[in-house]
Design goal:
Helix content is about 50%, strand content about 20%. The chain has 12 helices and 12 strands. The strands form 2 sheets. The chain has a 6-stranded mixed beta barrel. It has a 4-stranded antiparallel sheet with strand order 2-11-1-12. Helix 1 packs across helix 10 (about 320-355). About 35% of the residues are buried.
Length: about 400
């Protein structure tokens, strides 16, 4: 405690430089804390359960060259061939893909002829193997049957009378938990669709959107948009992917075929989030390095300026530990001041970002963790200069006068 008085006196004499370091620490804490919130949110979104077996799924689609190409006939032949290939667990066809960033959505209701208060949902066409092909879990009701699947042309105005929905949509439409067997309606329509099945989860085409997780599946094969969805046996995805591409080309060479894994499509969808994570991670690392560099520079400068005083203290019996402790305590007081300023600045900065850009709230726990990390970095940065100060002998200090 006897060291506090000379430390405070020294800090007062160098108040501008000490204040600048404290402000730098405070600003760094405010930026780092809010950056970590964004990073945590993006990582949570990327790593959350999707409801599909994306690591085992291969997707394929084609563009036909002839104008009068019979799409429905090609679908049947392709699916029969794909399902017979070795390593294929299930194969289906749908108008859109989950995790792809491209899809269709609409508003759904529990009463006919409604047009206000819709529950938005992503919808897919499906055949009887889609649930199995995507690796989804049917938790209530039943799957589509083969005789319920309709072939739809671009001009078709057919509307389904049955549907399978995700649990999240079922809960949104019927919060009481009794959605199975209940009707669901397109906006403004009076034709009901009976919910015959509920799957546990599917994030849909836009995992970052407001409709993420709310999905509807209709028993149809649509000509206008089509994607083959092939789930391979565990560990055989890459072999199946090569085989599917080869066999589709062999069966019919009058089309341009595109084959990709669902993981690749997911990676493309989250490319912006991954870029933001990398950029913010780099900013956090750079700011932390700059703060550490500033503390090292300031401590070294003060030690150089005080060599005579250090030598005198050593001559009067001060131990090396006491000298090191003095500079570490001095740095700790600056860091603590800066961190207290940073905690307040972080909350103010977060409120601005939340109101202007919709950033999630900054938990106090995140700020505290970042504060302790910066405090540890500050102490570590001052440690080497402090140990250097402890090695200054009284003779060297005298010659330096």
């Amino acid at each position: 405690m006897l060291e506090l008085r000379p430390i405070l006196s020294a800090l007062w004499r160098h108040k501008i430089s000490a204040l600048l370091i404290a402000l730098q620490l405070g600003l760094t804490l405010a930026i780092v804390s809010n950056a970590m919130v964004v990073i945590q949110e993006r990582l949570h979104n990327i790593n959350r359960p999707t409801g599909v077996a994306e690591q085992d799924i291969v997707t394929a689609n084609f563009m036909a060259i002839p104008k009068d190409y019979d799409m429905q006939h090609a679908f049947r032949l392709d699916l029969d061939m794909i399902r017979a290939l070795p390593g294929v667990a299930a194969a289906s066809i749908s108008n859109h893909l989950p995790l792809s960033g491209s899809g269709s959505s609409s508003g759904f209701y529990t009463q006919p002829n409604q047009e206000v208060g819709a529950t938005g949902a992503n919808y897919f066409t499906a055949d009887e193997q889609l649930i199995d092909a995507l690796g989804m879990k049917l938790i209530a009701g039943r799957n589509f049957r083969a005789n319920e699947i309709r072939e739809m042309s671009p001009s078709s105005n057919w509307r389904p009378d049955i549907a399978i929905v995700t649990q999240k949509l079922a809960d949104a439409l019927y919060p009481e938990g009794d959605a199975l067997g209940k009707p669901v309606y397109f906006g403004g329509a009076d034709q009901p669709m009976e919910i015959i099945g509920i799957v546990e989860r599917n994030l849909g085409s836009w995992p970052n959107s407001q409709v993420a997780g709310r999905g509807v599946f209709f028993p149809a094969i649509q000509e206008r948009w089509h994607y083959y969805i092939i789930r391979a046996e565990k560990g055989q995805r890459d072999e199946v992917m090569k085989l599917v591409e080869e066999k589709l080309a062999e069966r019919d060479n009058q089309r341009v075929i595109t084959v990709r894994t669902l993981e690749d499509r997911k990676s493309r969808y989250y490319a912006g989030d991954n870029t933001m994570i990398n950029v913010l991670g780099g900013v956090v690392g750079l700011l932390t390095f700059i703060v550490a560099l500033g503390i090292v520079g300031l401590t070294v400068f003060w030690i150089t300026q005080r060599q005579k005083q250090i030598g005198v203290r050593r001559a009067l019996g001060a131990t090396r530990t006491a000298i090191s402790r003095y500079f570490l305590l001095e740095n700790l007081m600056i860091a603590a001041t800066g961190i207290l300023l940073g905690v307040a600045a972080a909350q103010i900065f977060n409120q601005f970002l939340a109101s202007e850009f919709g950033q999630p709230a900054l938990p106090l726990s995140t700020t505290v963790v970042c504060a302790f990390i910066l405090l540890a970095v500050s102490v570590a940065a001052a440690l080497v200069p402090a140990l250097r100060a402890a090695n200054i002998s009284p003779a060297m200090a005298t010659r330096s006068v």
